[in-house]
Specification:
There is one protein chain. Strand 1, helix 1 and strand 2 form a beta-alpha-beta unit. Strands 1-2 form a two-stranded parallel sheet. It is 30% helix and 14% strand. With 57 residues, the protein is an alpha+beta fold.
Length: 57
Protein backbone atom coordinates (compact mmCIF):
# COMPACT_ATOMS: atom_id res chain seq x y z
CA UNK A 1 0.00 0.00 0.00
CA UNK A 2 1.41 3.34 -1.02
CA UNK A 3 4.61 1.78 -2.35
CA UNK A 4 6.62 3.79 -4.86
CA UNK A 5 7.27 0.58 -6.78
CA UNK A 6 3.58 0.06 -7.64
CA UNK A 7 2.94 -0.51 -11.34
CA UNK A 8 0.04 0.72 -13.39
CA UNK A 9 -1.30 -1.54 -16.11
CA UNK A 10 -3.91 -0.59 -18.67
CA UNK A 11 -5.81 -3.14 -20.74
CA UNK A 12 -8.81 -2.98 -23.01
CA UNK A 13 -9.90 -6.49 -22.01
CA UNK A 14 -9.28 -8.78 -19.06
CA UNK A 15 -10.08 -12.42 -19.85
CA UNK A 16 -10.68 -14.67 -16.85
CA UNK A 17 -9.89 -18.31 -17.66
CA UNK A 18 -7.64 -19.79 -20.32
CA UNK A 19 -9.94 -22.51 -21.59
CA UNK A 20 -10.96 -22.66 -25.25
CA UNK A 21 -13.40 -19.73 -25.00
CA UNK A 22 -11.00 -17.53 -23.04
CA UNK A 23 -8.17 -18.22 -25.45
CA UNK A 24 -10.38 -17.44 -28.45
CA UNK A 25 -11.62 -14.19 -26.89
CA UNK A 26 -8.07 -13.06 -26.09
CA UNK A 27 -6.78 -13.94 -29.57
CA UNK A 28 -9.63 -12.20 -31.39
CA UNK A 29 -9.31 -9.05 -29.28
CA UNK A 30 -5.56 -9.01 -29.93
CA UNK A 31 -6.14 -9.34 -33.66
CA UNK A 32 -8.16 -6.12 -33.68
CA UNK A 33 -5.48 -4.28 -31.74
CA UNK A 34 -6.81 -4.48 -28.20
CA UNK A 35 -4.47 -4.75 -25.21
CA UNK A 36 -5.42 -8.01 -23.49
CA UNK A 37 -4.44 -9.77 -20.29
CA UNK A 38 -5.37 -13.42 -19.70
CA UNK A 39 -5.76 -14.52 -16.07
CA UNK A 40 -5.94 -18.15 -14.95
CA UNK A 41 -5.38 -20.17 -11.77
CA UNK A 42 -3.00 -22.52 -13.57
CA UNK A 43 0.53 -21.73 -14.64
CA UNK A 44 -0.20 -22.83 -18.22
CA UNK A 45 -3.10 -22.06 -20.55
CA UNK A 46 -5.59 -24.75 -21.51
CA UNK A 47 -8.35 -24.76 -18.93
CA UNK A 48 -10.12 -27.81 -17.54
CA UNK A 49 -9.97 -29.75 -20.83
CA UNK A 50 -6.18 -29.77 -20.81
CA UNK A 51 -5.40 -29.96 -17.09
CA UNK A 52 -8.19 -32.10 -15.62
CA UNK A 53 -9.76 -33.89 -18.58
CA UNK A 54 -12.96 -33.16 -20.40
CA UNK A 55 -16.25 -33.16 -18.55
CA UNK A 56 -17.75 -35.72 -18.86
CA UNK A 57 -14.59 -37.74 -19.46
Amino acid sequence: MGSDSAHKYEYDLVVIGSGPAGQKAAIQAGKIGRKVVLVDLNKFVGGVCLHDGTIPS
